[in-house]
Amino acid sequence: MTYRRIAAGLALVLAPPAMAAPRPIRDCTDVCPAMAVIPAGQFMMGADAGEADRPEGAPHPVTIRRAFALATREVTNADYAAFVAATGYASSRGCRSLIRATGKVEAIPDADFRHPGEGAGQGAPNMPVVCVSWRDAKAYTAWLSQKTGKPYRLPSEAEWEYAARAGTKGEFPWEGGAAKACVHANVLDEDGMKDGALAVFGGAGGMAAAVPCRDGFAGAAPVGSYPPNAFGLYDMVGNVWEWTQDCYVAPYPADAPRDGRAYEVAGQCPRRAVRGGSWISAAFRNRVTWRGRDPEDQVSWIFGFRVARDLVDGK
User: Fold this and answer.
1) C-alpha to C-alpha distance for 190 and 196, rounded to whole angstroms
2) Where does the Sulfatase-modifying factor enzyme-like domain start and stop, copy by copy (predicted)?
């Protein structure tokens, strides 16, 4: 069972037995992530909502026809550092981070996943890796595939939203909406605002759209700091944005797959979809249907990822 102490009131929160999920699978004992088996099922993807030029619809039914595996946690600095050490991979630099003195987000030439910038954990092993591009994330999944012989990849947008919802239908995958966010996720809250954080990606509701509670972290949180959802997944909402496989097109095109596959285009994809919000994102952008959109080579101190893989014979 999962317990954590909420900063406001120091109340203990118990993840109820109903949230228990089957034991995760792990393909190696050293650097392989714990993977939850996500069952097949149906859901309504998207919403009649969004911001200017950022529609989240049209809502459409999606059927996940086969179970798949999704990492229970976001990839950590320790995970990613092991990949870099094993392969000599040259990870991206010039990460975009918040400059507290100016309140602006700018590219810092020497910033990378080890030194990501304000609030991102300074490369601590159990913090989610950030300052990694979509291409860096793809290189990491390719390494895991080679190491294990299993088909690792990034999740599709549909798989991500289905897994984040875990059977729920609201804007947030818990009861009580944004007002209860601090119990379940690391989003822009009173801790962040007190620390001087800005809702630099505030979205609807204004640049200071913090939730009226305290989640215990002014910046990023160690992975798994909050209760998991019904599929056994941590931090699907908040903490850091997560890259997905899809080429971003909005509104959802008529030919978008309805079976959980990623949407791709012929030729170069100008922007990839990112999901889930972050510790410095306003509540509106932490909803399960909100869609980010960024170039494949974008590196940001609030962008990370988690991995998926196909199951072979149910394993």
Assistant:
1) 10
2) 32-309
Contact 191, 181 (CB under 8 A): no
H or E segment at 161? helix 157-165
* Weakly modelled stretches of the chain, pLDDT under 50: 1-19, 199, 202-205, 207-208
E-strand ranges in 54-117 read 54-55, 60-64, 68-71, 96-99, 104-107
Query: What's the pLDDT tens digit per position in 250-308?
Result: 999 999 999 999 999 999 999 999 999 999 888 889 999 999 999 999 999 999 999 99
Asked if 303 and 130 count as a contact pair (C-beta separation under 8 A), the reply is yes
- Please tell me the distance from the alpha carbon of residue 178 to that of residue 8, in angstroms, as a whole number: 16
| Residue environment code for 122-131, b if the CB has 16+ CB neighbours within 10 A, otherwise e | ebeeebbbbb
10 Å CB burial of residue 168 (0-12, 13-18, 19+) is middle
Q: Where does residue 127 fall: left (phi above 0), alpha (psi -120 to 50 degrees), or beta otherwise?
A: beta
Cβ atoms of residues 27 and 17 within 8 Å: no
Q: Across-strand partners of 274?
A: 243, 292
Is residue 196 left, alpha or beta, with left meaning phi > 0 and alpha meaning psi from -120 to 50? left
303 closest CA partner among 92, 109, 101: 92
Q: What angle do CA 72, 226, 298 make, to 5 degrees?
A: 60
The pTM (predicted TM-score) of the whole model is 0.91
